[in-house]
From TrEMBL:
Entry's family note: Belongs to the ribose 5-phosphate isomerase family.
Keyword Isomerase appears in the UniProt entry: yes
Active site annotation, chain numbering: E105
One Pfam family linked to the record: Rib_5-P_isom_A
GO molecular function: ribose-5-phosphate isomerase activity
Species lineage: Bacteria, Pseudomonadati, Pseudomonadota, Alphaproteobacteria, Hyphomicrobiales
NCBIfam families named among the record's database cross-references: PRK00702.1 (NF001924), rpiA (TIGR00021)
Protein name: Ribose-5-phosphate isomerase A
Organism expressing this protein natively: Pseudohoeflea coraliihabitans
Position of the signal peptide: none
Length: 234
């Protein structure tokens, strides 16, 4: 089974949790894109859903495929969000933001009664941190914010490099949908994710980080042997 087939398998299973008429947060990334494609087929058959996209990219795909969209201001309370992830630990804590969308993704997930993550099994980890943690920051005061992140990492005993994300193939900064910059922090392991999340949230120039702690209710994981659903072990 190739990587795309696994994403489709997870997305298919997620679709079975979407009920007619639901207010639905729609995630970002290659796995979420597969979900949008499957959802669009159901919508074309008369299935009603009110979608709230988590990025301009997802909004474009939904519009192209005919999935009805609303803003989060139209629908400030959502029934369910389906989204991908870059890493998933045994408690279903996540790293997200590989596609730079974690700010809107977190706002949408927080407005949802439930969040279901879809991924292939390569995203499962024992401890978060092998995937570089995306940190969305204000362009103003970038150097000071970066220094504050460095100091926090040092205080928490986290070693690694922190790089500013660049636009793919270009020598210019990546700009998020919110008009901010991104730092990618490669720590290797983040044993105290809560302390890091709290510390990052306390830095004024940090807009949002990609740690999603205690937000996901379930993760649908696709592997060549089949699809399974994990729930948080608290
Ligand atoms: O910013 C992007 C999102 O957090 C994605 O959901 C995450 O990067 C996973 O993307 P993919 O499904 O392409 O691996």
């Amino acid at each position: 089974m190739d990587a795309r087939s696994l994403k489709i398998a997870a997305a298919e299973e997620a679709l079975s949790h979407v009920e007619h008429g639901m207010r639905l947060g729609i995630g970002t990334g290659s796995t979420a894109d597969e979900f949008v494609r499957l959802l669009a087929e159901k919508v074309a058959d008369g299935f009603a859903v009110q979608g709230v996209p988590t990025s301009e990219r997802t909004a474009r795909l939904c519009l192209e495929l005919g999935v009805p969209l609303f803003s989060l201001d139209d629908l400030p309370e959502l029934d369910l969000t389906i989204d991908g992830a870059d890493e998933i630990d045994p408690q279903l804590c996540l790293i997200k933001g590989g596609g730079g969308a974690h700010l809107r993704e977190k706002i949408v997930a927080a407005a949802s009664e439930r969040m279901i993550v879809i991924a292939d099994e390569t995203k499962l980890v024992d401890v978060l941190g092998a995937f570089p943690l995306p940190i969305e920051v204000m362009p103003f005061g970038l150097a000071a914010t970066r220094r504050a992140v460095d100091k926090l990492a040092e205080r928490l005993g986290l070693n690694g490099t922190i790089l500013q994300r660049q636009r793919q193939g270009k020598d210019e900064p990546y700009i998020t949908d919110g008009g901010h910059f991104l730092l990618d922090a490669s720590f290797g392991r983040i044993p105290e994710a809560e302390a890091l999340a709290e510390g990052l949230a306390a830095i004024p120039g940090v807009v949002e980080h990609g740690l999603f702690l205690n937000m996901a209710d379930a993760a649908i994981i696709a592997a060549p042997a089949g699809v399974r659903t994990l729930t948080a072990k608290i």
